[in-house]
Amino acid sequence: MRFLMTTKPSDTAADENLYTEMAAFVEELTASGVLLATGGLEPGGLRLTSAGGEITVTDGPFTEAREVVAGFALVEVRSREEALEVARRFRRIVGDGESVVQQVFGP
User: Fold this and answer.
1) Which of 23, 39, 75, 87 lies in the 20 to 30 Å Cα band around 104?
2) Using CA atoms, how far apart are residues 27 and 21, in angstroms rounded to an integer?
3) What is residue 15's predicted lDDT score, i.e. its pLDDT?
4) Which of 48, 38, 49, 106 is nearest to 74 (CA)?
5) Which PANTHER family does the record associate with it (predicted)?
6) Are 39 and 72 in contact (CB under 8 A)?
C-alpha cells in the first residue's frame, strides 16, 4: 500500500538536532524500502479551478498558510496503521504542526 504524506509549514525554527534526527529517519526508511520519494515544495505554485467548462488559473503564494503544502513523502507500507506510525514518528521529530496522510491508488 502506498501513502502520500504531506506537511504544512510551521513557525517553529529548526535546530541542528532536527536535521540530525531527520537524516537518520530518512536513511532508515530508505534502507528498509519504505520511503519511495520525498521533497519540499515551493510556497507558490498554480491553482487550477474548473467550473462550467471555464478553467481559472491562480498564481500563488496563497493568502492563507493553511492552504500551503510545504513538503511530501511517498511511502510503501503493509497497512494504514504502519503509514500512521511512520507519520507519527515524523511529527515527533519535527514537532508542532500538521500533516495529512492519504492512500495512493493505482500502480
Assistant:
1) 23
2) 10
3) 82
4) 38
5) BLL7171 PROTEIN-RELATED
6) yes
Q: What is the CATH number of the domain that holds 8?
A: 3.30.70.1060
Residue 35 belongs to what domain range? Answer: 2-104
Beta bridge partners of 33: none
Q: Are 105 and 74 in contact (CB under 8 A)?
A: no
User: End-to-end CA distance of the chain, in Å?
Assistant: 10
User: Which residues pair with residue 76 across a beta bridge?
Assistant: 2
Number of domains in the chain: 1
Q: Which residue has the higher pLDDT, 66 or 7?
A: 7
Judged against a pLDDT cut of 70, whether residue 29 lies above it is answered with yes
CA distance 44 to 40: 12
